[in-house]
Inverse folding.
């Protein structure tokens, strides 16, 4: 059933209809005139009654002949019971359904046991045959016209589910009755992929109805060894930092326990992929020696990476020094030795401001081309970039995405704590007296005042990095060698890409995936015939790889994206290949031309508190917006679904026949 209002709808009549109405009223006037002349001496009352019957007969005839429709404005109501709806809410929802003329009663609950628990209640209420069980929103739209009122009980719905309801019923008013908060971890943030030796940083919040109770939150390894532990209350944010010891796929566990009984109340899995970092090859060109480069050279040597330093010795001569390289030290080279082939061997080029502004036009062009091919350009920003008046293609490029200005009202450089990767340094550093402003670049490092210290901007296959921080060596001098290494490892991991001609881009960090979710996976390539494949689970690969359809993205040159539907929990593998794979998946996994990417999909029974929070926030926001618009929508004709139906003319036929019969009887008796 549905509530509706009905009205007559008179369409635009054509000329024949108007002619018929004119002739009918002329005929009525003639009939009434004759009746009055006939009965004026006998009875004027009878004359008026006969005229009224004739008027009714003619009007009935017109209603039968003219195309008249009935317009119904339907306004359907619905109740949806979702996850974690308690017994009192279920009872309220059922009573609302029984007491009101509502369209349908829906139950949209994921867990089979929870659905089964509702059957006795529905049976007792004699509503078991009225309820409609949902797993998607499609049956909701098939059974209803546009909704006017929607009553949601429990956790609510996901943003994409609410969006589909909004698209179907733009003027729906949502009345939300939220469930009790589930105890667990929410708003967790951590990087899913790390280099071996890199610090893992985990941040989250505890959700609980009891805001006064204390809980222990433990981070444990797979062998149940406790790595970190904190005692917190509900709504408090906590952080754990730890360094994974093993390469490969790792799982850590987060346990919420009751302090007295030590009972585990909630347990979540923290998946991590730890990979071995490849040795880097970095080229440094500076106008003068610096402590920053000296300490970076020593640290790179410890890591087994290669660092080559080109220092200027005269106007046209440079001196080369290298660590972990076959290049002979203290060899003089001229500036023309920096060629395309020479730059192609390096992962990153580091320049200071003075060396940047003195680059020749040829060097500027070569460096920009190398960045577009995948070279990372790291620039230590100083006053030279502001004061230089020379035309410089690289400086002009930097200014397209960042303003470089001297700080005002600063007579001395002030120390600041360094914030990066959801972490804060223990030791203050001093940055240059320069501000970086950008609205379309990524901030990698910032200070206590939220001022950018290091930012990056992609260009082609490479990245350009601007840094006002050239004193990270102070960490090493103060005994914070681990912080120093973590900082540079973070920078390199962010901006140095693989040397492959095709590679995956990192997905949105800190996002959680669940079965039935859609994810966009993007990659960079200059090759047109690249195919993206889904290989299945790591521990259960598919017999035949699935070809994913790629679409060109507009965010970045040479970027393509595929949409993937997560259908199963676990670690999934993806790869890029220039060849068609039509037989064994082993060929694709062992191909040296493939680029394997791993994505973790959580089980539907994981992170239940976070799933609830996402639904509660989305549903509450949707409800608040709909209630604000309710008054506007009420007076809007398009707020309801209108249907135009031919007017039911059967009663009019009876009236017409009855009136004609009366006139016939009166004529016979006259």
């Amino acid at each position: 059933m549905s509530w509706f209002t009905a009205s007559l709808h008179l369409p635009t009549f054509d000329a024949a209809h108007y002619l018929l109405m004119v002739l009918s009223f002329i005929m009525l006037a003639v009939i009434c005139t004759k009746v009055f002349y006939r009965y004026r001496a006998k009875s004027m009352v009878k004359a008026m009654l006969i005229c009224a019957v004739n008027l009714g007969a003619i009007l009935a005839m017109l209603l039968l002949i003219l195309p008249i429709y009935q317009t119904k404005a339907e306004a359907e109501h619905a109740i949806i019971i979702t996850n974690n709806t308690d017994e009192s809410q279920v009872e309220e929802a059922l009573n609302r359904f029984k007491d009101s003329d509502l369209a349908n009663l829906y139950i949209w609950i994921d867990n089979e046991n929870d659905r089964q628990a509702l059957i006795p209640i529905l049976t007792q209420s004699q509503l078991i045959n009225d309820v409609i069980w949902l797993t998607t929103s499609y049956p909701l739209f098939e059974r209803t016209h546009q909704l006017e009122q929607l009553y949601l009980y429990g956790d609510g719905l996901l943003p994409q589910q609410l969006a589909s309801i909004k698209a179907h019923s733009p003027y729906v008013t949502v009345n939300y009755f939220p469930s009790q908060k589930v105890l667990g971890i929410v708003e967790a943030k951590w990087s899913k992929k790390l280099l071996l030796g890199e610090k893992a940083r985990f941040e989250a919040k505890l959700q609980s109805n009891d805001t006064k109770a204390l809980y222990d939150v433990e981070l444990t390894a797979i062998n149940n060894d406790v790595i970190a532990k904190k005692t917190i209350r509900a709504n408090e944010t906590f952080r754990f930092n730890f360094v994974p010891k093993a390469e490969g796929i790792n799982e850590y566990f987060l346990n919420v326990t009751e302090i007295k009984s030590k009972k585990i109340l909630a347990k979540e899995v923290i998946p991590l992929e730890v990979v071995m970092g490849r040795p880097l090859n970095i080229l440094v060109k500076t106008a003068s020696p610096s402590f920053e480069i000296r300490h970076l050279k020593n640290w790179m040597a410890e890591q087994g990476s290669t660092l080559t330093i080109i220092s200027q010795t005269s106007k046209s001569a440079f001196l080369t020094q290298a660590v972990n390289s076959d290049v002979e030290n203290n060899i003089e080279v001229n500036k023309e030795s920096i060629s395309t082939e020479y730059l192609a061997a390096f992962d990153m080029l580091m320049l200071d401001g003075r060396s940047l502004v003195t680059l020749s036009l040829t060097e500027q062009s070569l460096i920009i081309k190398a960045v577009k091919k995948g070279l990372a350009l790291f620039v230590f920003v100083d006053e030279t970039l502001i004061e230089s008046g020379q035309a410089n293609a690289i400086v002009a490029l930097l200014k397209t995405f960042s303003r470089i200005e001297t700080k005002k009202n600063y007579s001395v450089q002030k120390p600041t704590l360094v914030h990066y990767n959801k972490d804060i340094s223990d030791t203050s550093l001093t940055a240059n007296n320069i501000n970086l402003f950008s609205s379309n670049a990524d901030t990698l490092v910032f200070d206590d005042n939220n001022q950018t210290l290091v930012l990056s901007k992609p260009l082609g296959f490479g990245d350009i990095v601007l840094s006002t921080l050239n004193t990270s060596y102070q960490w090493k001098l103060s005994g914070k060698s681990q912080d120093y290494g973590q900082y540079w490892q973070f920078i390199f991991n962010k901006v140095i890409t693989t040397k492959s001609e095709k590679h995956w881009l990192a997905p949105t960090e800190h996002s959680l995936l669940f079965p039935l979710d859609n994810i966009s996976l993007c990659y960079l390539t200059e090759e047109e015939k690249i195919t993206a494949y889904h290989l299945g689970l790591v521990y259960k690969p598919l017999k035949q790889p699935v070809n994913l359809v790629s679409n060109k993205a507009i965010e970045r040159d040479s970027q393509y994206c595929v949409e993937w539907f997560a259908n199963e929990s676990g670690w999934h593998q993806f790869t890029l290949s220039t060849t068609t794979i039509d037989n064994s998946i082993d060929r694709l996994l062992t191909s040296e031309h493939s680029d394997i990417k791993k994505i973790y999909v959580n089980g539907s029974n994981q992170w239940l508190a976070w799933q609830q929070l996402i639904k509660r926030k989305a549903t509450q926001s949707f409800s608040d917006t709909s209630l604000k618009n309710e008054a506007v929508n009420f007076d809007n004709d398009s707020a309801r679904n209108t249907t135009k139906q031919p007017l039911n003319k059967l009663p009019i036929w009876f009236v017409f026949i009855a009136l004609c019969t009366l006139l016939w009887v009166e004529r016979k008796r006259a």
